[in-house]
Amino acid sequence: MEQTNTARKIKLKSREIRRVALTPLGLLGVLGCAALILVWLNAQIKLTDMSTINSKLLSSYSLATEESARLKLAYENAFNLTTIEREATAKLGMHKATELQVIYIGAESDDAVMILNGGIKDEGILGKITDIFKKLSEYIMNN
After folding, report:
1. Residues contacting residue 121 through CB under 8 Å, at least 6 positions apart
2. What percent of the chain has pLDDT over 90?
3. Of 43, 48, 89, 104, whose Cβ has the fewest other Cβ atoms within 10 Å?
4. Model pTM above 0.85
């Protein structure tokens, strides 16, 4: 009989609905974990987006670097003296000057600058009148 009583007790216990008590602190912990999971997922999505943007920027940077190297080479070739001479002779029909076409000019004095009138002086009405008489006298003397 004892076996039947224990068997009945086991059946009754298995039929009982167990109620799980959830405390407010436990509920807060579960909500906090869910929030952290959502934040982590959002961070992973943003990280993926940033890595795709980074790869696009790196590819455009490498293209720009290649273009810059190509343009530098073209720039250096544009000012290459042998290339200029070759294009001048082939396309423009130019040729080197002979000894009879070259004239050397020598200057015995150094370069100099001469300032005429020594600058403008504003002396008022009296200065203008004297300038007019000076110019008239120079004109009369030269003619």
Report:
1. 127
2. 31
3. 104
4. no
